[in-house]
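[09:14] KT: can someone run the structure on this one? pasting the chain below
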Amino acid sequence: MNTIKQAAVAALAVAAVAAPAATAATAAPALHYKCASSTKDIDDNSYDGPWPDNWKVTVKTCAARSGNTVYAYAEARWDGPGFYPVDDPTIFDGAKLRLQIKQSRQGTDPVVIERDFTGIEDRLEDSTSSADYDGRYRSGTISHRAGAGALADAVLFLDWQGDGRGYQRHEYTGSPTV
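[09:31] RB: done, structure tokens below
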């Protein structure tokens, strides 16, 4: 092997050995999320029959900070009524979980970023083979640069099929400030 090839092979070998160490040394620390949750009993506006029709929905809203960047996610858990057919895709005309990062201020907290997660509708309308409508959904994580005292907030929007009311807003407790 000539000298140039030997030098190149040696350099690659050193880089291969050093790369994992460099990656491990620069890995970001795990985020410490602060969370709060609240529960609401939500009436199915489109149903007036004899069976209980309320959905018990709990939303946990979480925020964490790394330097000037705030990260947030929300997780919803629910216990739905048992009279719907199995995997009924017609319960809602629409459903979405809105996640926001807000700058905490005296008075109304301004929203610095928000995102709607519509995947919750499919999860809400999915049941077990015995039509048990209990489930959970976790949003993706959003992030934004924010000053001190930022927090995450979550709102659940439900549009019951055939009730003619459109999206109904259900606000949940925001995270502690980070």
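[09:33] KT: thanks! The CA atoms of residues 19 and 25 lie 10 Å apart.
[09:34] RB: yep, looked fine to me
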